[in-house]
Amino acid sequence: MIRPFSIALLVGLVLWTASNASANAADTRGVEILRSDSLVGWQHSAEPARGWTIKDGRLTGSEGATPLLGGWTLGDFELRFDWSVSKHGKLIVKLPKVPGGDGMTLSLAEGKSIDLVAVGSRVTVSDKQIAATKGGAHTAVLKRNGGKYTLSIDGTLVGSGSLPPKLRLGLMLSVAEGQASVSNIRLVEPAGQPIFNGQDLSGWWTPGNKNAWVARDGEIVLAARGGNYLRTEKLHANYTFSFEYRTPKNTNSGVGIRTARAGWPSGDGMELQIHTSPGLGYGAMMSLYRNVPPLARGEKIEDWNRVVMKADGRMITAWVNGVMTQHCNTAWEAELKHRHLTGWIGFQDHGRSIRIRNLNLLAAPDGLGMDGWYTPRDLPAARVVLDRLMNTDRLAHDDGIGSGTAGKKIANRASRSSPT
Predict the structure, then answer these.
(1) Is residue 290 within 8 Å of residue 272, measured between CB atoms?
(2) 272 alpha carbon, distance to own chain's centre
């Protein structure tokens, strides 16, 4: 006979295991938004970034450094990061309102109380001071769910409050005093809604042979050639889209986004490549096909891979297994700047097998995101010339680059010389 204590212990172990499995699942959903080797994703203010260094994944800035504007906007989220400050240093994490204006400001310093300001909100902040560490770092977790948010430091809840539930926020970093560092910045967003029911291809279509695509065991499977792009019936604008895929070696496929119903992604919308060949070229894994090469590779060959991509105004970001592999403001890309901002999501039949599962979409409000993403800035002359050639509207702007012709008359000396 099982004793009541044993039953209670067993139930407790089961609940603990389920809780930890859920926590671990949440961790795997998180994506890095600070690369270990560069400021890609953060240099979106009008001024070039100055006063910051990044080494071994640790971003360090000093007082007076240019504020860094991230290339993402957020609804519900969990933002987790490690931070440290010098003596009398103060790190500012700001979440401005989209497309601009005051939203939420978090000031972090040691030996002082938390300073958390949120426009139009009721804020509760503990008086607990953050103890100084000897070369160590603190961990902050800021969560927002609907109209509520919470802030924890080193595992202790230190602040909470309310925000208008529809308020969308951006993300900025700056240093108010001394020196401050951040690392391991990870973002978790809700999965959103499934866009594949796991049983059939309701809500999907293709101008090719739809029977080439099948729903099997909760997966979308390319079973034969001739399927063209499998496309969603519904058109989507701004969103976070996540899915898992598995392919054999020597695969060539792609994810089409924001493409008109009868259009082709690489010409009308955009295509994020799924390709197993090595390298970081213009056709490599997670490149914006033929336009922007990937930042890195994060996939596992012949295994399941998780892809998360955000389309936010003209900003496109993609992660593979949590690694940021693509980030581009297409407003500054001559060939992409006028592409559609709304269209279908789809998967390419390139004659190679692919399996896809767990397709979810978190819709975001329409709009171009943060105003700061589109502030005029200096671009390399070669990019300006290319923009002029591809977009005649650019000719109406004074961009400081002139053109003209030059010539020089050269006498025909050959006629004055005697033959040899």
Answers:
(1) no
(2) 13
Q: What is the value of pTM for the model shown?
A: 0.86
Domain-wise residue ranges, the chain: 25-188, 199-363
Sole residue written with tokens 């890095």: 32
- What is the C-alpha separation between 372 and 44, in angstroms, rounded? 7
d(CA 384, CA 377): 11
Note the pLDDT tens digit of each residue in 151-177: 999 999 999 999 888 999 999 999 999
Structure tokens at 57: 């994944």
Nearest in space to 269 (alpha carbons), one of 256, 279, 259: 259
Distance (Å, whole) CA 365 – CA 30? 22
CA distance 170 to 185: 15
Residue of 120, 322, 315 whose CA lies nearest to 237: 315
8 — pLDDT class (breaks 50, 70, 90): very low
42 phi-psi bin (left φ>0, alpha ψ -120 to 50, beta other): alpha
- Confidence bin at 394 (pLDDT 50/70/90): low
* Amino acid in position 252: N
CATH of domain 199-363: 2.60.120.560
Give CA torsion, residues 254, 256, 257, 258, to 10 deg: 160
Strands 90-95 and 355-363, sheet pairing: unpaired
The span from the CA of 194 to the CA of 288, in Å, is 25
Question: Residue 314: how many CB atoms within 10 A of its CB?
Answer: 20
Residues 155-187: b if buried by 16+ CB within 10 A, e if exposed: eeebbbbebeeebbbbbbbbbbbbbbbbbebbb
DSSP character for 199? Answer: S
C-alpha gyration radius of the chain: 26
Instruction: For residues 131 and 87, give the distance between their C-alpha atoms in angstroms, rounded to a whole number.
Output: 12
What is 25-188's CATH superfamily?
Exo-inulinase; domain 1 (2.60.120.560)
